[in-house]
Structures are given as structure tokens and as C-alpha cells.
Amino acid sequence: MLTFAVCVSKLTILGIELLTIRQHHLLSLSLSLSSAGQLCFEVVFALENDARIEVSKYVSYLLRHDPEDLEMNDEGFVELDQLLSKVRRRFPTIDKKLLVEVVELSERRRFEIVGDKIRALYGHTINVQVNLKEDTQVEQLYHGTTSEAAEQILEKGLQPMKRRWVHLSPTKEIAYEVGKRRTDTPVVLIVDVTEARSHGSRFFRATDKVYVCKHVPAKYIKKLPN
Ligand code: HQG
Fold first, then answer.
1. Are 166 and 211 within one domain?
2. Which tens digit of pLDDT belongs to each residue from 181-201?
3. pLDDT per position as a tens digit, 140-152
4. Are 139 and 208 in the same domain?
5. What's the rounded Cα separation, in Å, for the pair 56 and 68?
6. Structural domain range at position 26
């Protein structure tokens, strides 16, 4: 079967506009030729990547930093329907399916949906009890940052700064990417988790890419060679 897809902003046939594409959406028109020689076409709506990022950023802001008029419980959950109404005030074309898609298709698992509620898994500045499961196995974790911050961290340890937790990465590659958000030349620090844990530090797994802890003393942190 021969298949190809084109992306258009409106669907026009013989000069007649049949469909105007909704704001924040991408129309993908797939044409395929079946083995019987029939020409088939399929129209698929998807949330445009940029719009997906904007919605994700707004949801992150609400669930991590300022829920505004949303009712948030002690564990950081809000009703998915309430969140949807709020998001729709800014992104009117978003429906529940698309909101769930934004949450579930994000390359980092920033949020979790449990029943009819949703919350951010990490990154909070507001005081919520996320009650993550403590990790007792992981031996080393990484932290990517700027060279200026790294110098401070090697002296004073890792501190949560504006957030509730220090955020750590399970691999040096992920830590490098985190550091890249701030600088072109990130420094990757390695945390001796086994040693820190044996002296009372506790580490929690938020997602497959993010671990958190309250504070890491400087003596358990080293700089990785570039
Ligand atoms: C630095 C993103 C000086 C620390 C990421 C960092 C992450 C110190 C900054 C998550 C310090 C805090 C969090 C000390 C720490 N002296 N600087 N003693 N201790 N710092 O944003 O780890 O995309 O709170 O190095 O991927 O950059 O939003 O932490 O530079 O997982 O889902 O203080 O956010 O996830 O900054 O990022 P942040 P982070 P999302």
C-alpha cells in the first residue's frame, strides 16, 4: 500500500473551503492506494506540537506553582474537569481527549491522572504532599546545571532553591539535557546515593526520568569529567 500524508491549514477542494482548521490543531490528510486500486483518504486531527507545549506549560504552571481558583487537595490533585474548564478559557478548542493526550504523550511524564483527578508529579513550589515512593535501590544519580551553580553546589550541597525538592536524573545523559535548558555547556554532577542514604538522606522516584530529595550534602557530590 502506498501512503503519504500532507499537513494543511485548511481543506479546499475546487476552490471551495470545506474545512477551516481549528486553532491549535493540525489537520493531517493521509492518502492511500489499496491493493484493489482504490484511493482512500483519511483526515486526522492532532494537537499541533507548539500548542501541545503551550498547554503543557500552562498545566505545569497551574499544578506546580499556582492553581488560582482550582480546588487542589493536600496531595496536589485537582478535578480533571475543573482543570479542563480552566484550560479552555485560554485554549478554547481543547477537549478532554486532547488534554489527556497532552498529559500522556509528553516526552517527560510530568503529570499523573488517577480516576477523575490530575496532579503534577514533581516540580512544585506550592506546599503539597505528593507522597512519592521512596527508592531504596538506586546507587547513583546525576544533576545537570551551569558551571556557576555547580561551584556553589560543590561547596554547599544541592538545595531545592525555589522548589520543594532537589531534582535529580537517573542517567548522565538526562542530566546533561536538564543542564542544557540553562546553558550550552552544562556541568554534570554525580551523587553517591548509597553513601548519602546510609547517612540519612532519602530519595524518591517521581518518574522514570526524575528523582527527588530534600537536600544533598556537598560531601556526596562530585563533578563528572567533561
Ligand atoms: C541550582 C525540569 C546554587 C540547580 C527539569 C538548578 C528537572 C543551586 C537551580 C526539573 C544550588 C534550581 C527541575 C546551590 C541547586 N547553589 N545553585 N546550593 N542547589 N542549585 O529548576 O534541576 O521540564 O528548581 O542546579 O528537567 O534545573 O519542568 O531545578 O540549576 O527535572 O518537567 O538551582 O525541572 O523538568 O532550578 O529542574 P530548578 P532543575 P520539567
1. yes
2. 999 999 999 999 999 999 999
3. 999 999 999 999 9
4. yes
5. 16
6. 10-47
